[in-house]
Design goal:
The chain is built from seven helices and no strands. By secondary structure, it is mainly alpha-helical.
């Protein structure tokens, strides 16, 4: 049952990867749109990593090499979603996992995922402009978030006991104007 579930989720992921990378080059998640956006999809995959990793060590009828290959694809899709929060979750899981014994084949599997990801960054697609566009959007989002955090911390310094309910947007504007 676990094998079938993993294959189905990876099948959808592969379809979305092909759809994103080759066909229409859009960030919209068509078939798996129950996740809302690609970040939610990546975070879902990260949340399932411990269970999937445990499954790779579990003795059943599925060959170990196939489990590790599926695990590599799973990690690849997390990386390819380019979600900062998913990368952070994956990094934390990896740090915690390195504290315990990891077999050579599991390390190879993790390395294969990263190699696939970096290879996919340079794989030809219909247009390389989409990669530049996505990078610019991510960079602009990061800058905007950091500015919002900075403005919020400044507002907290001035109003340590808080502000009235529903007044955040009105109160934050002057701080945002100062930081830009």
């Amino acid at each position: 049952a676990v094998f079938l579930m993993v294959v189905i989720i990876l099948g959808f992921s592969l379809y979305e990867f092909y759809n994103f990378r080759v066909t229409n080059l859009s960030l919209e998640l068509g078939l798996i749109s129950t996740f809302g956006n690609i970040n939610m999809f990546a975070e879902f995959l990260v949340l399932t990593i411990p269970f999937l990793f445990h499954w790779t060590r579990y003795k059943d009828d599925v060959p170990a090499w196939l489990k590790l290959f599926l695990f590599s694809l799973w990690l690849f899709f997390i990386l390819y979603c380019r979600s900062r929060s998913a990368w952070l979750g994956l990094g934390l899981w990896l740090i915690l996992q390195l504290r315990y014994k990891i077999s050579r084949s599991e390390l190879l599997c993790i390395a294969l995922s990263f190699l696939l990801y970096f290879a996919s960054m340079y794989a030809p697609a219909r247009s390389s402009a989409i990669d530049d566009n996505i990078g610019a959007v991510k960079e602009n989002n990061t800058v905007a978030r950091l500015a919002l955090y900075e403005s919020t911390f400044e507002m907290i310094k001035d109003h340590p006991w808080g502000i009235q309910i529903g007044r955040y947007m009105g109160e934050i504007e002057p701080y945002q104007m100062e930081s830009s």
